[in-house]
Amino acid sequence: MVEPTSLLLGLEGLGVRAVAQRADRTRVVEVITIDPNAARCPDCGIVSDSVKERTVTSPRDIRYGEDPIVLRWNKTRYGCRNDTCSRVSFTEAIEQVPPRRRTTTRLRTQIAREIGDAARSVVEVADGAGVSWPTAHAAFVAHAETVLGEVAPVRVLGIDETRRGKPRWTRETDSGRWVRTDPWDTGFVDLCGDQGLLGQTEGRTGAAVRQWLSEQSEAFRAGITHVVIDPSAAYAAAVTREVLPNAVLVVDHFHLVKLANDALTAVRRRVTFDTLGRRGRKQDPEWANRRRLLTARERLAPRAFAAMWNALIDNDPSAQILSAYIAKEELRQLLAAARDRVDDAEIRTRLYRFYSWCADTKIPELHRLATTIETWWPAILAFLHTGLSNARTEGYNRLVKQVKRVACGFRNTENSRRRIRFHCTRAQRASTRFTTEHLPG
Ligand SMILES: [Zn+2]
To answer: What does the pLDDT read at residue 441?
Structure first.
């Protein structure tokens, strides 16, 4: 039976022999090894009784009570007496304090959890635990590696861009020109499984995407049935049959609605400028209605909708803003086919209504929008059939920003990626699972 003080300390394998208090209230706990396996040679496994030397170490442990605790572990150094073993000597070790460790296992676990799960900064946690920054960081890395492990195959891969920092202006040394750099990362997300954020890579080019995919296993690449991307030509070009042989490209529909909203805003600005010879102001009706224009039709109260509609009729004789508004709503109707689970005939009807509306106007912004929809049609149709979207990725982008804020800007990209991935994976596990019933196969 373990005696009470040792039980209170709770470090398995160590027994408390004495506790003393210094003038500054620090408690000094003298411990000895009570685990018979501590005298086992780490190479040959034979228990030794040949004491070579006695030493004292002070491994750092978790806080207990208000005043500090200092452990003094009286360790024994043994010689291995097994003739066939090449080891000459070894020092006692227990599971809570492995060889050459100066912190207990339970302290490192606690540190890792505070950094990883509570998303606290390394500096803050290191200070609180009384260890150095590198020790706290190493504890987190070891913990993260066991939790994250290798990327397992996924069925639906989400590819999305995130801004890594604020845009910066830098001066080129040769020409003296000022150049704007927009640091972007590309994130890869397991959209239907429970792995969360799989990885990140610098930049948002097709080459960056191909590079990341090429670093994954062949089984991973072959297992992907769908890839959801923003309507970015670079991403689409990267997802080829050579790279992902079984993947169908799906375009994220929120980005398509945004394209329609952008076209509508461009028309409103141009019409205002043509009519008034200046930019829109607060007192202009179409400026006052700009938010209602971008709001989904079904989310507008009947009165607000009527007010917007009538103001546009009264103040835009060319009816271009209203035409652009209707085009946006026709596109939304078409995209709602995914939610409504309609058949392909109904999809064709809705697509035809959108195209013919755009074609019947003489509005260049709407012609461009219709061309974009045509370019992306196969990937849009894949969305209408599966309902897959990157909506979940947006959640990660918020998490990524939160983690970055806590860390006050990472200088080391690898450290930053590990923490972000750890955080997004954990958040993922806590959330409910995505339904995969709409997926074929
Ligand atoms: Zn040995």
So the answer is: 42
Residue with tokens 């529909």: 253
Distance (Å, whole) CA 260 – CA 268: 12
How much distance in Å is there from the Cα of 83 to the middle of ligand 1?
8
Distance in Å, CA 36 to ligand 1 centroid:
15
Q: How many residues does the chain have?
A: 441
- In this structure, whether the domain defined by 156-252+389-430 belongs to CATH 3.30.420 is answered with yes
Domain ranges of the chain: 1-97, 103-149, 156-252+389-430, 253-386
The number of beta carbons lying within 10 Å of the beta carbon of residue 366 is 26
Contact 284/269 with Cβ under 8 angstroms?
Answer: no
Average pLDDT, the chain: 84
CA neighbours within 13 Å on the CB side: how many for 232? 16
Would the pLDDT of 174 be above 90? no
- 146 C-alpha to center of ligand 1: Å? 29
- Cα 342 to Cα 333: distance, rounded to the nearest angstrom: 11
Cα gap 163→167, rounded to integer Å: 9
Name 351's Cβ contacts closer than 8 Å, sequence gap at least 6.
334
